[in-house]
Amino acid sequence: MTTEGLTTLIPAEKIAVRVAELGAEISRDLVGIVELTVVCVLKGAFIFAADLVRNLTVPCRIEFIRASSYGTHRSSSGRVMLDHHHDWHVEGKHVLLLEDILDTGLTVTRILEELRGHNPASLRVCALLDKPSARATPASAEYTGFTIPDVFVVGYGLDAAGRYRELPYVATLNA
Ligand code: 5GP
């Protein structure tokens, strides 16, 4: 489908099915834990996180971290900035890091390094999207929604210079 300069890559219905599957899989793997600390990486993962946590059956505490590397450009700046002027509350906790997309892998690597320094009981990554061909550093997620080619995508939380986050589907921008 092509709408106003966008081509749908993953329709909303397909995302909903996959997010429910991820929620069920994560809940199965973590059954019996007292509490899961979910860390949502802002801004891009906010919609994914909102939908995913409602598909989890384990008790959650939800935290947010802001990471940025893109600015208004469409390729990674290679420099990851984290806002971490807050308490992590992850010592001895089971932690699930929620990312919108694994691209170069630099952001997730930087955040994992930060989280590991706070001694969590366990640490897992769940990314809605994965672009394995774009890696600048080895990085992977325990749970992945969709593997996509190395194309710039928007929607379902992902932006282009602040636009398109509200779209219920994932799309590519037409040239
Ligand atoms: P990294 O390159 O560090 O793996 O990804 C950093 C961040 O860049 C992601 O969390 C995401 O916010 C942004 N990013 C990477 N690929 C894309 C893309 O195709 N579209 C959009 N809108 N953002 C992306």
Which CATH class?
Alpha Beta
Going by CATH, the architecture would be 3-Layer(aba) Sandwich
Strand line-up across the major sheet: 5-4-3-6-7-8
The ligands bound in this entry are:
guanosine-5'-monophosphate
What fraction of the residues are assigned to beta strands by DSSP? 25-35%
Query: Which parts are unreliable, with pLDDT below 50 for 5 consecutive residues or more?
Result: none
Secondary structure: number of strands: 10
Q: What class do helices, strands and sheet pairing give?
A: alpha/beta
What is the molecular shape?
globular
Helix content percent band:
10-25%
Number of domains: 1
Distance between the termini: 15 Å
Mean pLDDT: 92
CATH topology: Rossmann fold
What is the string of helix and strand elements? Answer: EEHEHEEEHEEEE
